[in-house]
Write a structure and sequence with these properties.
Elements (H helix, E strand, L loop, with lengths): L2 H15 L5 H11 L6 E2 L1 H10 L6 H11 L7 E2 H8 L5 H14 L6 E3 H4 L10 E3 H12 L5 H12 L2
Antiparallel strand pairs: 1-2, 3-4
Helix pairs in contact: 1-4, 2-3, 3-4, 6-8, 6-9
């Protein structure tokens, strides 16, 4: 585990210990750190916010965390990027059931769900294609709100008739 991953784990634990366990609590924490109200955090805001939690980072470490979590290369973290970074990793059981659900949709087996795969089942006008990574990312967010693997597998199995 590198320094950025260790920082993420500490931050996740701190947020949970302070009662910021849900998306709303994490969003409130994010807004408190967003001093300039830009709806994004730069490395300095992140550094100051983490210091309030007792996670002291030097400037280079804060910049490294921002770079790792900044998916759109904007140089800052928006709320979605922040929440995504704090999601706990999914278990192998959860990843396997998500992959099985995706495989059921991917009738051509090419690793991409297209409109042709879904014809008659779903309107793909808004999202004409979905990759496994996008599918997993979506269910990673769902997974964060389900307590046990058994509940998650039951939900996925029922929803996708696996």
């Amino acid at each position: 585990m590198d320094a950025v991953d260790a920082t993420m784990e500490k931050l996740r634990a701190q947020c949970l210990s302070r009662g910021a366990s849900g998306i709303q609590g994490l969003a409130r924490f994010f807004r408190r750190m967003d001093r300039d109200r830009s709806r994004s955090l730069d490395a300095g805001e992140l550094q100051r916010g983490l210091a309030e939690l007792g996670l002291v980072l030097d400037t280079a470490e804060a910049q490294g965390v921002c770079r790792r979590w900044d998916r759109d290369s904007s140089g800052t973290l928006d709320l979605e990027e922040f929440l995504r970074a704090l999601r706990p990793p999914m278990s192998q059981v959860r990843e396997a059931v998500i992959t099985a659900a995706f495989a059921k949709l991917d009738r051509s087996g090419d690793g991409v769900v297209t409109v042709d795969d879904l014809r008659g089942v779903y309107s793909g006008r808004a999202h004409p294609r979905v990759t496994l990574a996008e599918f997993q990312d979506y269910y990673s967010g769902v997974s964060a709100s389900v307590d046990t693997d058994e509940e998650f597998v039951a939900m996925m199995t029922s929803a996708w008739r696996l």
